[in-house]
Amino acid sequence: MNAETTTQRYTALYEEHQKLGASFTDFGGWQMPLKYSSELAEHHAVRKTAGLFDLSHMGELWVTGPDAAKFLDYALVGKLSAIAVGKAKYSLICNQDGGIIDDLISYRRAEDRYLVVPNAGNADAVFEAMTERAKDFDVTVENATAATSLVAVQGPNSVEILHKLVPAAEAGVVADMKYYAAEDVTFTVGGAPAKLLLARTGYTGEDGFEIYVPNEQAAALWTALLEAGKEQGLVPAGLACRDSLRLEAGMPLYGNELSLEVSPYDAGLGPVVALKKEGEFVGRAALEAQKEKGSARKLVGLKGLGRRAGRAHYPVLKDGKAVGEVTSGQPSPTLGYPVALAYVDAEFAEPGTKLDIDLRGKAEPFEVVGLPFYKREK
């Protein structure tokens, strides 16, 4: 199914999820699998073996033309012209006030061709902003979201699983691919070879890959991956465990940690802003001023010293006084204690600072720690 209505959208894999008994949730206007069995079991599978995700709600924007690199240097806060062909870069698109429209990944596929991947709920807004910003550049911005599916294999057994679907001659390409790199790789899909874009990127804190595939081949690829991963413990995984995985890895979620009201410097993303690059870019003046002024509040990691978890919008306290607010929080399945991300007054952002989270009238002890909470062994 690849239907779209004014209120609800469905990925090309929707019927596959139904067959697997998935529970669904709305995310960015899309009906997405929340979990298939147990979100805890899916979380542990990604950490210990592998999980298969449908990420087809993400956007895919192609930027093509002689000015592609120069245009992206203007449209985004990073220096996209510095990316080598075959590599990727995490960046932000901001408004003139320095507010974050979205965080995204850009892949350079050729000297004059990039794939920009925004988040699901922001894909249309990013496309509109980039189209507006492209007026003075020799580029074409194409929205390929409706025709493109995206699946991800995440976990320590990812390479072994993909090797079952690629020719022996290309096995080394998969195994040797660096983090934040991408290559066109031949997969066996529905009994026939298909060249697909394979990227060593992800949002779980584990090793893994993301595969861009035309909608018409998505179901065959999904089925082939599940079959190939049976012996390696691959399980379908939903958005519930994706959220707990990314939280353990200290990765921000738009709408929680990032928004138009948040500066990159507040969110700890200052290094993403390339103020040293030449030329104007959208938001430069505001971002320069924000960096000079400093942040009144900063995003921090909080480790629970008790057993109860904080949740989004719960107040953060110091000696009973509100000094911040939780943006994401839950028990960590991997670490065995509660973790949270929160914006707190800058004076309380140092690791080791003891704070409390107001859990519906009861102060629960937490401690500021460095991020990420969890980091995989290499």
From TrEMBL:
<dbReference type="InterPro" id="IPR013977">
    <property type="entry name" value="GcvT_C"/>
</dbReference>
<dbReference type="Pfam" id="PF08669">
    <property type="entry name" value="GCV_T_C"/>
</dbReference>
<dbReference type="InterPro" id="IPR029043">
    <property type="entry name" value="GcvT/YgfZ_C"/>
</dbReference>
<protein>
    <recommendedName>
        <fullName>Aminomethyltransferase</fullName>
        <ecNumber>2.1.2.10</ecNumber>
    </recommendedName>
</protein>
<dbReference type="InterPro" id="IPR028896">
    <property type="entry name" value="GcvT/YgfZ/DmdA"/>
</dbReference>
<comment type="subunit">
    <text>The glycine cleavage system is composed of four proteins: P, T, L and H.</text>
</comment>
<keyword id="KW-0808">Transferase</keyword>
<dbReference type="InterPro" id="IPR027266">
    <property type="entry name" value="TrmE/GcvT-like"/>
</dbReference>
<dbReference type="InterPro" id="IPR006222">
    <property type="entry name" value="GCVT_N"/>
</dbReference>
<feature type="domain" description="Aminomethyltransferase C-terminal">
    <location>
        <begin position="297"/>
        <end position="375"/>
    </location>
</feature>
<dbReference type="InterPro" id="IPR022903">
    <property type="entry name" value="GcvT_bac"/>
</dbReference>
<dbReference type="Pfam" id="PF01571">
    <property type="entry name" value="GCV_T"/>
</dbReference>
<comment type="similarity">
    <text>Belongs to the GcvT family.</text>
</comment>
<dbReference type="InterPro" id="IPR006223">
    <property type="entry name" value="GcvT"/>
</dbReference>
<comment type="function">
    <text>The glycine cleavage system catalyzes the degradation of glycine.</text>
</comment>
<keyword id="KW-0032">Aminotransferase</keyword>
<feature type="domain" description="GCVT N-terminal">
    <location>
        <begin position="13"/>
        <end position="277"/>
    </location>
</feature>
